[in-house]
Write a structure and sequence with these properties.
The protein has 298 residues and is an alpha/beta fold. It has 9 helices and 8 strands. It is globular. It starts with 8 loop residues before the first strand and ends in a 13-residue tail after the last helix.
């Protein structure tokens, strides 16, 4: 290995398993010292254990790298602060933040509880904010930093159901990425986002097997560690010109998403009346649109 991240200190949240574990190992293999954060909970966010984070720390050390474990939850501001404090206490600095921690609480919207909604947003969207808020003063002071956030295709037109909470959180992360990139760019900090597709505890869960049985064979071939090379590159100095952007990544495939643009416009000086919109919208704006989920027979 070229050790392209030698001298850098990285934090990876949710690094005890799956994609986060692959990212932590890849960053360490490139010379970074790594804080392996993982609450050690179940897929739905319940429970906690130290074994997941400790196991990855042991793997990194066995390969000759340096790593320390952290077991805080990203769902609280204090947790985010403690994760960053672990990096400062253990290695004296922090250069890279990879936000990966996540849970699932899938329910159709009419069955979703307030707790299901709140906890998914707290772990995903709030969790990203908590760690970014904690690390940004250090990045600003040293005028350098790399932030890689984790979104999902679930908030797009993916054929998944019962993920209003998860999709909303993941699209919020894309917007957060754009704004952090603008706010922190002047201080030498980049912030990018990935939409990974891989076989993990979340995508291979019993709930997903019931919802998308046809996709399981594909997911089983898509390894979590296939995501890590792109993250290692985004964390490097070579990616200094890349910020505020979102990438798709799976085994053998990387894509760059375009940023949203207006497709069409209706413009009228003085504003539109209701009657005018009923006349012009179907003809000039929406005639080619198709409902992807039309009403089904009872």
């Amino acid at each position: 290995m070229a050790k392209r991240l030698a001298g850098k200190v990285a934090i990876v949240t949710g690094a005890g398993r799956g994609i986060g574990r692959g990212e932590a190992l890849a960053l360490a293999s490139e010379g970074a010292k790594v804080v392996v954060n993982d609450l050690g909970g179940a897929v739905d966010g319940s429970g906690a254990a130290t074994s997941a984070a400790d196991g990855v720390v042991g793997e990194i050390k066995k390969l000759g790298g340096e790593a320390v474990a952290n077991y805080d939850s990203v769902a609280t501001m204090k947790g985010g602060e403690n994760i960053v404090k672990t990096a400062i206490d253990g290695f004296g600095r922090v250069d890279i933040l990879v936000n990966n921690a996540g849970i699932l609480r899938d329910r159709m919207l009419f069955n979703m509880s307030e707790e299901d909604w709140d906890l998914v947003l707290r772990v995903h969207l709030y969790g990203h904010f908590h760690t970014i808020r904690a690390v940004s003063p250090f990045f600003r002071q040293q005028r350098y930093g790399r932030i890689i956030n984790t979104s999902s295709v679930a908030g797009l037109n993916a054929t998944t159901y019962g993920q209003a909470n998860y999709g909303a959180a993941k699209e919020g992360i894309v917007g957060l990425t754009r704004k952090v990139a603008r706010d922190m760019g002047r201080y030498g900090v980049t912030c990018n986002c990935i939409r990974p597709n891989a076989g993990t505890r979340l995508t291979l869960s019993d709930e997903m097997k019931k919802a998308r049985p046809e996709a399981m064979a594909k997911f089983e071939q898509m390894k979590p560690e296939d995501i890590a090379p792109l993250v290692a590159w985004l964390a490097s100095d070579d990616a200094a010109n890349v910020t505020g952007r979102t990438f798709y990544v799976e085994r053998g495939r990387i894509g760059l998403y375009s940023e949203p643009v207006l497709e069409k416009q209706l413009v009228k000086v003085g504003g539109w009346t209701v009657d005018e919109l009923f006349m012009f919208m179907p003809v000039a704006m929406t005639k080619d649109l198709v409902n992807p989920d039309p009403p089904q027979p009872k």
